[in-house]
């Protein structure tokens, strides 16, 4: 990772006005990214995993909580961002091999950072979890970038539809070897079988061991989420459409996708762990509507007095996500005696037990306060970085 005053693929720069649908920077996308990564930190860092308010937890299996929106929002944003980063190169024509090499490099770095988090601090390669959030972001970024660079919008729409239908067919009509008829149950679907066969149980999510929510097969529909962002960005960049019309159609498309997702839910349930096709449409529709609202507020109307906290998160999103996962692991290596317990705990746990638990009578409030405090600490750090024009890119 390196420090720069320019953001490359992580932060969104538009092309010159002659090439873009609006001048300057798509501020709404940075704000959307900031809101999303802030929410991701909130749900990933409770003070106590045993005491969490229901909206801050993932659905147990089928269904969708507010927390289940966060990861698809991020992949949707990746799709939008890559169009703004790569559209100028695509418009110029000519060989795209050098651009794809840079794309693959960045995707590989994201994958490696995810593996590093999984390995740290013990570096047990024999049992490291290979799939993960950053790993999926890296793969979706590479595949979605290649599709955008080498195909047109009509082909992209066809690929999106094909991916979602194919995934539905594979999951509901193709039986997993040794498990009998296809079943959309934990560890019993075709994707779980593929993960166990290719990656082995030693390299899967430790909480399940027999399947992984970021597994191999479900990466296919996750690419569909990225493609929704790619297609949305190309509509936003249209020069021949007025902003009000863009926003109106985005809301229409978003609502239509939500309805289609709810209809599809009737036979292929909305499920984040499986990243079902209905889940792609449902969450994608909400993401499109959210971006449309932010685009109208921030970029069209110019109402930006409230955006600074989200903006500073948005321009260093990958950095804060990575470090917010790494630093707690480092703190837990520092052992401290916990008063009244007769045992030593990591510094992160010690701070939570001594500062938050005694302060809040309700355990869920203490847990939430710990997560919010972490967000505020990072807000201060990122605010300073923003004003010093320090933007980290991979």
TrEMBL record:
Q: Which UniProt keywords apply?
A: Membrane, Transmembrane, Transmembrane helix
Signal peptide residues on this chain, from the entry's feature table: none
Please verify whether the record's keywords include Membrane: yes
Report whether NAD shows up as a keyword of the record.
no
Q: Where is the Heparan-alpha-glucosaminide N-acetyltransferase catalytic domain?
A: 25-239
Pfam families in alphabetical order: HGSNAT_cat
InterPro entries for this protein:
HGSNAT_cat
Task: State the superkingdom.
Answer: Bacteria
The transmembrane segments are 69-86, 107-127, 133-150, 157-174, 215-236, 248-267, 279-298, 310-331, 366-386
Protein name, as recorded: DUF1624 domain-containing protein
